[in-house]
Each structure stands twice: as C-alpha cells, then as structure tokens.
C-alpha cells in the first residue's frame, strides 16, 4: 500500500483533487463568461486543469492500492466506480480549458486561416464546452467524494 508517514496516500492525494477541480472549474467558468478576466488569467485555467488531470490518476491508483489492502465491500465498490470516471471529467475540463485559452489568444487565432465568423463560432463553442465540462467535472468529483465518505463513515 502506498503510504506517507504511515498514512494511506489516497486520502491525502484526494484532497488535491477535491480542491483543485472545483477551483479550476470556477476559473474556467469565469474565463468563459467574463472576457476581461479571461484575458487577465491567460493560460492559468488550462494549467490548473492540467494539474488536476495529472493528480486524478494518482489518487485513483492510490485508492486501488488501498482497496486491495482493506478489502472490498459494496460501498467501496460504489466509490471505486465513481472514482474511476473522475478522469473523464478532468480530461474534458482540461480539453475545454485549453480550447478556451487558445480560442481567446490572438497569437493563436491570427495564425489560423479561418474567417472571423468561424473564429467566433469556435469561441462560442469553447465557452459552452468550458461551462459544461466544469459542471460535469465538479459533479463527478462530488459523487466520488460522497460515495467515499459513505464508504468510510457509513450512512
């Protein structure tokens, strides 16, 4: 089992995901809805989303190690199933955040041989995807965390 100072690694790393994904989702939503903030934040939402995408499989792997150590139960199986799909949410959040950043960056859009109307459409799609991916990622993290809390403390 992966441990740090005798504590299982999973609950420690999970807290990174639980803080990072909603914080990233908030930044992406603000960037999608407020153009001035989007310009000010630059690539920050995409970088935060990338960190979330990196930390999520670490938490999942540590959780699988902990599951093998503790044994399985229906509550742990439910939590493991919920945790397995968080990577989909963080992956979509990263993709949407990167698209949102690139569609708003003049250095990127000026090099594309696309008409202004196509660039505007891409920007609108990036904003909608950013909000949708943010909501989905936060929900998936919430669901995994809730089932994990039920697995640990019952109820």
From TrEMBL:
The chain crosses the membrane at residues 12-34, 41-60, 80-103, 124-142. Pfam families: DUF2231. Residues 6-153 form the DUF2231 domain. The keyword Transmembrane helix applies. Keywords: Membrane, Transmembrane, Transmembrane helix. It comes from the Bacteria. This is Putative membrane protein.
